[in-house]
Amino acid sequence: MAGDPPGASAHALADGPASSSTCNGSVCEYVQGSGTEVTDWETTAYAGSATCTYANFWVNYVLERQSSQQCVAAGTQLRSDWRNTSFPAGTVLCNTWANITGEPCVTVT
Hints:
The structure is a single chain. The protein is mainly β and 109 residues long. 0% of the residues lie in helices and 62% in strands. It contains no helices and 11 strands. The protein has strands spanning 10-13, 17-24, 27-34, 37-47, 51-53, 55-59, 62-66, 70-72, 76-86, 92-97, 105-108. Strand 6 (55-59) and strand 7 form a beta hairpin. The termini are far apart. Residues 1-9 and 13-17 have low confidence and may be disordered.
């Protein structure tokens, strides 16, 4: 169920009240926080066809968390998030969704 870890290039999350967002394929990632504190790590995906899927949250290319499975119709926008956590500077945060193309990443700085 986990699949292969993503290898997409990472965007940086700046110091101070900041956010970083990036999209790759049909998957987007939005990370909000300050320094190493992440207040909200959200991922969205667009299901171009009917599918059953779940969000994967990767920390330094290791699968750390998954959402529950959702079965949706074509054209559905999906969303999942992980809130109020912290990661050391240099940590790479990536998202994937099962059966949906895309692997965006953000680096905590």
